[in-house]
Specification:
α9 links the parallel β9 (about 205-210) and β10 (about 230-235). α1 packs parallel to α12 and α5 packs across α7 (about 155-170). By secondary structure, this protein is α/β, with parallel strands linked by helices. The chain folds into two domains: about 5-100 and about 290-310, Rossmann fold (3-Layer(aba) Sandwich), CATH 3.40.50; about 100-285, NAD(P)-binding Rossmann-like Domain (Rossmann fold). Helix content is about 35%, strand content about 15%. The protein has twelve helices and twelve strands. The longest helix is centred in the C-terminal third of the chain and has 19 residues, at about 290-310. It binds (2R)-2,3-dihydroxypropanoic acid (DGY). The site of (2R)-2,3-dihydroxypropanoic acid has 7 residues, from loops.
Length: about 325
């Protein structure tokens, strides 16, 4: 039997690349720049497994590129960059890497909450520009977290881990919006809100943890931002498309929102121009899962899915 041919579209942690290479015929995009749509489409004819990341757009045209790929083993938990319907229609299985990046992403949500609340980005920029004139009681005064309400939008694994850190570590009160109440909320004394606008109206900080895609596109639009409390903060580690960034920029400019912390954008690596000039927004380059342990675990999880596929077993993390 010929060995499985696997295309890895970006560099993965070395240990994972080695583990893949020991098992199968792998080709890694060593340039580590995004592949073209034409290159991805061609790969559908040349490989058995395509192993992409969030920076690849696996749309209908790419999927139509060939008939050989039978597994798309995504490196990452989110899969809104993959056209699942097109994959299903061609009998291609799709897997992701859930669970292993929960802690890292929740840590980053807290990083953004703290940076926005304590104006850390503004302070660092001021200092590096040589503009710090010394300590004074009114300098860069931010907001405390203790006793403030964190509204969590989407109460899955990452939303819960973020709530847990905020509640246990920083004394925040938790409210959450989800399709239905979750039993895990009890241990955090978290209040369920069945209506998003209600949650937004009572939260001092709002942290987004819903999947991307059509169902959540512009969930946080001008109306939702208006519903948020005067002087509150918006944190997004989910997907850029969940937020209307023009409306967000306006809410930050007018002072209706005190600040925001963003890790994701609708057309990465582009960052909405309207945000770049604003002091009260922290902008990070999609770092949610970026620690060495997590990135390796993500790769090993993708490998486990490829291994199951190679053996004809049930795929542990099948999403389509
Ligand atoms: C994911 O896994 O979906 C992240 O956005 C990339 O780590």
């Amino acid at each position: 039997m010929r060995p499985l041919r696997v295309l890895v579209t970006r560099r993965w942690p070395e240990a994972v690349e080695c583990a893949l290479g020991e098992r199968w015929d792998i080709v890694v995009n060593r340039d580590d720049t995004p592949m073209t749509q034409v290159g991805l489409a061609k790969a559908m004819e040349e490989f058995d497994v395509l192993a992409p990341t969030v920076s690849d757009r696996i749309n209908e045209e790419v999927i139509a590129g060939g008939d050989r790929v039978k597994l798309i083993a995504n490196y990452g938990v989110g899969f809104d960059h993959i056209d699942l319907d097109a994959a299903k229609a061609k009998g291609i299985a799709v897997t992701n890497t859930p669970g292993v990046l929960t802690d890292a992403t929740a840590d980053l949500a807290l990083t953004l909450i703290l940076m926005a609340a304590r104006r850390a980005g503004e302070g660092e920029r001021e200092l590096r520009a040589g503009n710090w004139s010394g300590w004074r009681p009114t300098h860069l005064v931010g907001s405390a977290l203790k006793g403030k309400v964190l509204g969590v939008v989407g109460f899955g694994r990452i939303g819960q881990a973020t709530a847990e850190r905020a509640h246990r570590g920083f004394g925040m009160t938790i409210a959450y919006f989800a399709r239905e109440p979750k039993p895990e909320a009890e241990a955090l004394n978290a209040e369920y809100c069945s209506d998003l606008q209600d949650l937004l109206a009572k939260s001092d900080f709002v942290s987004l943890h819903v999947p991307g895609g059509d169902d959540t596109a512009n969930l946080i639009d001008a109306r939702a931002l208006t519903a948020m409390k005067q002087g509150s903060y918006l944190i997004n580690t989910a997907r850029g498309g969940v937020v209307d960034h023009d409306a967000l920029a306006e809410a930050l400019r007018s002072g209706h929102l005190a600040g925001a912390g963003l890790d994701v954008y609708p057309r990465e690596p582009q960052v909405p121009e309207a945000l770049l000039g604003l002091e009260n927004v922290v902008l990070l380059p999609h770092l949610g899962s970026a620690n060495a342990e997590t990135r390796e675990a993500m790769g090993m999880r993708a490998l486990a899915n490829i291994e199951a596929f190679a053996k004809g077993e049930d795929l542990p993390d099948r999403v389509a």
